[in-house]
Specification:
Strand content: 5-15%
Distance between the termini: 36 Å
Order of helices and strands: EEEHEHEHEHEHEHEHHEHH
Number of strands: 10
Helix content: 25-40%
Radius of gyration: 18 Å
Largest sheet: 8 strands, parallel
Oligomer: single chain
Structural class: alpha/beta
Low-confidence stretches: 1-7
Number of helices: 10
Length: 282
């Protein structure tokens, strides 16, 4: 990890694109004022990564905030994703074109295949490789891929994914998937890192948080960062966005990390990709 002026912690993706390890997710954030305010508050608080997706239907609001907040576009890192019903070669290229139109941008920093669809994988990835070589996506990656899906992709890929974004929180630590990512030099990025708030009352987290003078959410985010996992907590509340970004002034001990490791129960809040080899509708 190295430190930059823009953000306290970034990582170099293997296609030489620098990515902040911490950002704002905007899943289930309404287009218009709600998402524009959240993105604006986050950037003002020092966030430099914003994660959206075509299926979130809020790319327009994300783009509006990025244009109006006063930070140069090249200092920000914007991710969007290819939804299931647009996978395939020509449709994936058209999908990013439509996302860029909604975002009002010439490029995204990271374009992800949102869910693995076995029959479309090869064509979709070929499209992403082309989009990257054309400069429309600086980096490309995947989301919700497990080891076998990564193996299938890597058997044909010319370019390895930079990122695999997966559900990951104290109750679902995904060590097998993280190990598969590590094997290919892929950065693991956690979606729903706070388990939509469902884990914040856990006694282990509260005990660690009280000892540090921070919140349980801050403990989780710090745990992920110290574990080398990028994280994109979602919030639409200004105070919570600021709090979730304030995770660089304290650290967790080996005992703290071991206590959180013991919380892994395999409990998901989202679908298991293994149960949906051909994807699903929204």
């Amino acid at each position: 990890m190295k430190h930059t002026m823009n953000h306290p912690m970034t990582t170099m993706l293997h296609d030489t694109v620098e990515m902040p390890m911490h950002g704002l997710g905007v899943f289930q954030t309404s287009d218009g004022d709600e998402v524009t305010n959240a993105v604006t508050w986050a950037i003002e608080a020092g966030y430099r990564l914003i994660d959206t997706a075509a299926i979130y239907r809020n790319e327009a609001g994300v783009g509006e905030a990025v244009r109006s907040v006063g930070v140069p576009r090249e200092e920000l890192f914007v991710t969007t994703k290819l939804w299931n019903d647009e996978q395939g070669y020509e449709s994936a290229i058209a999908a990013l074109d439509a996302s860029l139109e909604r975002l009002g941008m010439d490029y995204v920093d990271l374009y992800l295949i949102h869910w693995p669809i076995a029959s479309k994988l090869s064509d979709s990835w070929r499209a992403l490789e082309e989009l990257q070589s054309d400069g429309l996506a600086r980096a490309i990656g995947v989301s919700n891929f497990h080891g076998p899906q990564l193996d299938a992709l890597m058997a044909e890929a010319s370019v390895a994914p930079s990122v695999n974004q997966i559900e990951l929180h104290p109750n679902l630590q995904q060590r097998t998937v993280v190990a598969a990512n590590d094997r290919f030099g892929i950065i693991t990025q956690a979606w729903s890192p706070l388990k939509q708030g469902r884990v914040l009352r856990d006694e282990t987290l509260i005990r660690i948080a009280e000892a540090k003078g921070v919140s349980a959410a801050q403990v989780i985010l710090r745990w992920q960062l110290q574990s080398g996992i990028a994280t994109i907590p979602k919030s639409v509340t200004k105070e919570r966005i600021i709090e979730n970004g304030d995770v660089f002034t304290f650290s967790l001990s080996e005992d703290d990390l071991a206590a959180i490791a013991a919380m892994d129960s395999g409990d998901r809040i989202g679908p298991n990709p293994d149960d949906h080899p051909e994807g699903f509708k929204d």
